[in-house]
Amino acid sequence: MNQIRTIKGTHDVLPDNSKDWQRLEKIIHKNASLFGYNEIRTPIIEEAGLFNRGIGENTDIVSKEMYSWVDRDNTTIALRPEMTASVVRSFIQHSLGNQSSLQRLYYMGPSFRRERPQKGRQRQFHQFGVEAIGSNNPEQDAEVIALGWQILSEAGISNLELKLSSIGSEDCRNKYRNELVNFLKPYKSKLSKVSQQRLINNPLRILDTKNKDEIDIIKSSPIIEDFYTKEDRSHFKQVQDYLNAIEIPFSLDPLLVRGLDYYTQTTFEIISNDIGAQDALLGGGRYDGLIKSLGGKDTPAVGFAAGMERILLAISTNKDNEKTRPIIYIVCVEKDALGSVQKIAKGLRSLGYNVLLETMRRSMKAQMREANRCDANFAVIVGEQENNEKTVQVKNLNDGNQETIDQKNLFNHFKSLTI
Length: 419
Ligand code: HAM
Prior knowledge:
Helix content: 25-40%
CATH architecture of the largest domain: 2-Layer Sandwich
Radius of gyration: 28 Å
CATH class of the largest domain: Alpha Beta
Shape: elongated
Number of strands: 16
Bound molecules: histidyl-adenosine monophosphate
CATH topology of the largest domain: BirA Bifunctional Protein, domain 2
């Protein structure tokens, strides 16, 4: 019979790696709290229209990569390709803006894009992200970036690079888009098929090209900075001032193009040179028009999302070793004692020890071998004699010392140990 395997572009997280995930998740929860963000969890499936309208019908994410299908009741459903649109849907649906004029939210979970899998790019990947909904001030942009920077730094990634840009307000972008199209039109025949299509649908994406001839053409194209309004310019300058104040280094990248349509003004990415071609660990920006366009009140917002697999890829070579709590392995070769060792395990766990209890009924030798294999610090051994005398042998597996302890004193014994 054919063996069933994971679907292309999806991965199992095996026990050897799940500790790394938990460690990263802990860092995210901790820092989100330090910055005053509360967790929000939204469904993995949504009406496809949310993403069509939210991210933009002509983006690659929606037009080429989104998993969607017509459900039995004829609604078109999609696996979320990102979480910002879902968070905004939830913000509107539950009137979160009425509870507080500024909602600081964070989230993590799987997202899905049908991309060509490669190192750092999966079809099911995990994002964590934050959305600060309610403030249009530049200090909010700086706060969000600082939180992302802090999490990546604490996760242990040393070669971080923050790229910063502003794509201006809608007014500025419309003018710029027209100028860019006018500039590129005479070169149309020299553009790739994809870029020719983008010239109609999404001209700003052409700036993101990897095609050498197109890069040459773009070198002399108009730049968005020349189209900023006074407000755009001042907002962007203040974001930079605040980042300088908290000593987060950044470089300005006028060609930074994000793959989602909802951005206004500040956009940013944090990259690492250690993880190959898919180098963006985190991306985000301001999206002042999205809430209104999805049916909510006109509310400014800024946020980011980061790829958790990419972060783990970046730290797999230089992470600190996680300290595991002391492990006690309960070795039991006496059938009559199988009930009482359950009780011993329960008591030791309540003291905070990781307790492994033999359930394979192996020989004493095999159980001791197993205790060593899983790096246990202590073996608590119950044989026939110990069971009769209501004692246990406690063996320190680091120094080999062994002592007999009365079962009734066992918990106090472990309580008094300073490990
Ligand atoms: P995004 O740039 O599309 O932005 O994705 C954010 C991050 O998710 C990327 O920087 C990358 O690390 C990770 N990522 C994206 N696609 C994949 C993939 N196929 N495989 C592995 N990792 C991937 C957003 O999703 C926006 N919602 C960010 C945002 C939040 N903007 C404002 N608020």
